[in-house]
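Blinded run. Sample ID left blank on purpose so nobody reads anything into the name before looking at the predicted structure. Input follows.
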Amino acid sequence: MTETTSVGTEFPFGPVSPDDAVEHMKRLLADRPMTKVTMPHGGDLWVVHRNRAAKEVLADPRFVREPFRTGERVVPFPVPFPDFLRTTLQFEDPPQHTKLRKLVQKAISPRRVREMRSSAVAFANELIDRMLARDGVHNLVAEYAVPLPIEMLSSLLGVPSSDREKFERWSSSSMSVAGASDSSAADMAELAAYMTDLIAKRREEPRDDLLSSLAHAREKDETLTDAEILPIAFILIVGGFDNTANFITTAVRSLLRSDEQRALFLTDPDGLAPTAAEEVLRHGGFETGNPVGAGGGLVPFVAKEDVLVDGQLIAAGEAVAIDPVSTNHDPATFEEPGRFDITRKDNPHLMLSHGLHHCLGAPLARMELQVGMSEIFKRIPGLRLAGEAEARSDVLTQPMTGLPVTW
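Blinded prediction complete.
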């Protein structure tokens, strides 16, 4: 990638130590609100660094994704962007996006998520019971962080959790960078057939789940077609557990590496879980011991017309993306942004986006993260790391596949 630079404010930067990354971002954010970057794939785009400017972009309907969805433009990104993701709800614009989003939000409402919390706690403890039944080293990712969100997603959608291995394979295939998976097309066709069959069954025999709600939803005088339901189901399946599993793993890992914050968390896991979860989303990645770098951003938009954001003109047709690393460490928004503080009250991070494209599954992801953190530390307060974490680099979300722990 190429970039506009000023001395000491280069972007992209790193990987460097987390402390050095925080200081670099402090200089960068004082210097400019955004940087014009040439991505290895898809050409130029503005990467927005300041938190307030990022919120302006994410809430402005003049920034759209239609040119990417239709294939008119290549998505500017550090790696070849998976074609399959362009068919999901994430790439719809208003009014179609608004229509579909409104229907999904009814099914993933805060009330529905509160009702799911007790079953999440019960299943988390089932998983912990299985871990405690055997001494030695355990893989937290495979035995806890992945099964928990898959169980909740299965319950929400109304699909069998016994199909867990299929979900993991479909998610990896859909998120795989171009050329990384020979079976991607076949896996996506299998996913489409699987969901189409389930939608047909829910039309005939409705149940208390999201697919049944969508299959029988009415927008004005029209029901949703399979073609409208599928993009919703796709994004929930491929993004509904993978990211949450990473969040849970990062939460446990970051607390195990911070004696002070772990000791504080153990004093009241249930009471501190809400603020701790938000701090993990904002800053947890800086506490895992890995070097930190910045160079890309979230899924980009295209400006429909000239838009002035924080003094910088984004011209019609230019692409723009949000850099969550810097927006979540903006000193103008966060007091002591480099400090890991699980009691932080004012925490408007953008890890789950904002505005029109705020993560549809955010209430569910937050609940699962809170439950995942509190239950494991309540049951196993002596939990400790037993090795290095492992992650996949051939998948867009770089999911963690291993975190050895013991007690």
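Unblinding after everyone has recorded impressions. Residues 315 and 377 are 50 Å apart (CA to CA).
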